[in-house]
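WARN retry 2 of 3 for item q-0093 after timeout on previous attempt; input resubmitted unchanged.
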Amino acid sequence: MKMQRTVPGIAAVAAAAVAAFAAYGAVQKVRDNAATGGLTLDLDGESVRVAARQGAGATPVGGLKRGQGSPEDDSKIAMVTARLLASNHYARQPINDSTSAQLFDAYLDTLDPQRLFFLDGDVAEFAADRDKLDDQITGSGDTSFAQKVFARYLQRYQQQTDFALAALKDPKNFDYSADQSFAVDRKQAARPKSTEEARALWTQRLRYEYLQLKMAGDKPAEITNKLSKRYNGGLRAVKEWDSDDVFELYLTTLTHVYDPHSDYFGRASAENFSIGMKLSLYGIGARLKSEDGYTVIEDITPGSPAQKSKKLRPGDKIVAVAQGRDGEAMDVVDMKLTKVVEQIRGPKGSVVRLTIQPADAPDASRREVVSIVRDEIKLEEQAANARLMLTPAVAGGKPTRIGVIDLPLFYSDPEKGKSATEDVAVLLRKLKAEGVDGVILDLRKNGGGSLPEAVSLTGLFIKSGPVVQVRDPSGAEGEPGVKVMDDNDRGVAYDGPLVVLTSRFSASASEIVAGALQDHGRALVVGDRSTFGKGTVQALVNLGPIMERMRVPTEADPGQIKLTIQKFYRPSGASTQLKGVEADVTLPSLNAALNVGESELERPLPYDTIAPVDFTKMNRVTPYLAELKARSQARVAADPDFVFLRGQIARLQKAGKEKTVSLNEAKRLQEKKELEAVLDARDKQLAARTAPADKVYILTLKDAAKPGLPAALTPAQLKAGVTASTDDDDTAADEATGAADTKSKKRTREPDADLNEARRILSDYIALSRKSGTPWSAPLAANQPK
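OK item q-0093 returned
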């Protein structure tokens, strides 16, 4: 596989960063100044003194503890980070008054996203710096604004905690007979004008939290205990912040002004990561983020304990963590993210129980307990796997043989000889040897990975041609800044009917593959309305070597900066950024009602287009697309699984549009009763079904290397929804982790409606193409490599 260009490595990016910094106004020399104890840096041709940060703005204020970093180091790091952003980020956005205003707003919203703490008067006081933050950072590395604002935040947090703890002692505050409501989304709301207004908001928030626990089945004494611990724990966590934490948060907020995927990682993050590695602790394989006081699952690692549980999904909120089979659950709402991670990590083989608020729960009081055994993620469990699915013959015909390849990640490990492309090629050869009529490439859970693997894997399905265009910020249409990555190998591993199954969670490299196969007219894309929409490239750069070369070294590790440096474009010239890849045939999806995707993030880079690349379309899809869409729409309209799904989507969308939630207990209980009735009816409907008549064979890479087929799944396994060799049925999993005695009501696992409909679409596609005489190329021999 030959390519014209690859994404630059870290060393190359670091060198480019230094060069670009020089062009912007490099650090030309550093000289000691004994008279002031400070440092002088020559930037933009004039000498700028780096503040010693010994006076106001240098010493932590408002009770904030000093971290390990010195004020002088922080100043240098802030200056270099800001200049690198301005000169190396893809947007080439200068740090000016506009950047300053965005940083001002973003920092306040990062600390107080629901606008419960800062008063109007606080913001008015801070506003004196609104258009000065750019000069402070680039001129002298002054980040004292961050400390000043955080000190006020700590003060308001203390006031709120004291107020809530006192209010918890009065039972009259928790009468829910009146028709009141609580604003659950105040991100665009006005800030409280006075302490009295703030206390009114705090009261309603406390009443909301109390009612949530009450509806989840807790008794008054339990609720008071949990909320007291929650508020005290939240305050304790905020008080544990030091100047390093605030500094990192401030620079991270600055990078997010540029786009949501750029980041600053300070010494605190690096040390926490190092500690976790040295202790050899194991987790659950989920990437977490903090959002409005909740720990939210952002992504789930393929092959991880979290993924194998089949009970967690991105968007779920973790509200409590318990150790072992019977340990007491610790409330983690408003807990610092690093502390939550510490609770989730633990020895290999141990059990952690997570109480979650499911992302797809229309009722915000719904709680589920998920028990997971901590473990390492084995490489083979992240690898591609396949299923051979035989659909019963209709009207005397032959059974339709469908191959499904599940690729969770575009992995590449040359040292261990692992390649997603090579593994998929092995599975394709096996499926062809078993006489498949068509193949589904399932990328629904694939969040990306290796770009070269995405290019080479696309080449398994096309003879040759462009796969993706990569644009540097200096590049315009037709200029050297745009490079094309081609599949130059004219071999084809599989040339038959192909469906690419995508979801809103298909991102980055997945979008490159889906977009290229769609542009070439090679595959039918089926799934959510569009994929995630991440069409950018990031480089992680260590600041230490750069600052050494600039002759502005620091005593401690200055951290790392992750910069967005390039954008992806399809062969057609359309960017995958923001819009993603739109499906040819769209299926109803809960993801449409969830805040998932690049467009839901703050300040994403825009969608745009560049000139297309010359290539010849295969036109395998367009002749049948209208008929395929019509048939699918008719089936989906009547399919019981999609009928139920549309009801769930409607309930979620209704809940999402309502910015307030009722605090009338009778009304909430009635709503909960109605929802439970819907779910109970659904459980009965699923329980009454007979097992599918399909024959399904699960094929691992080891199976693919053996002659013949493994045993088919049993009817009981098919009914239980087993889809991989590592799957357990829910009862066995609960017994293994001791989860059977939780408060969670056990629900029947939903069928994979999307995959079932994708199989029907592919069957139609096969039949229509045969009827029209489409000249599918003869498949390669089963033992012929790509």
